[in-house]
Amino acid sequence: xxxxxxxxxxxxxxxxxxxxxxxxxxxxxxxxxxxxxxxxxxxxxxxxxxxxxxxxxxxxxxxxxxxxxxxxxxxxxxxxxxxxxxxxxxxx
Length: 92
Description:
92 residues, mainly alpha, globular, 0% strand
């Protein structure tokens, strides 16, 4: 965290620090760690921590969240589900 981010936090001008575990509160099987969904969740955690995120990652996250909303989908994780396909199921 930069000096500026620490000062903003002390001045209560930004929200509380969010941990990765708060965004992904479950253990993720290794085979899912590099999926598009996990990349999106890591981007969300970085944005909530007020970290720099590449514009492309922000755009992909926004598109994915819009896709979930438009299709009325919820994220549900089970370590017992089959491995993901080679190409992602979601845009981005």
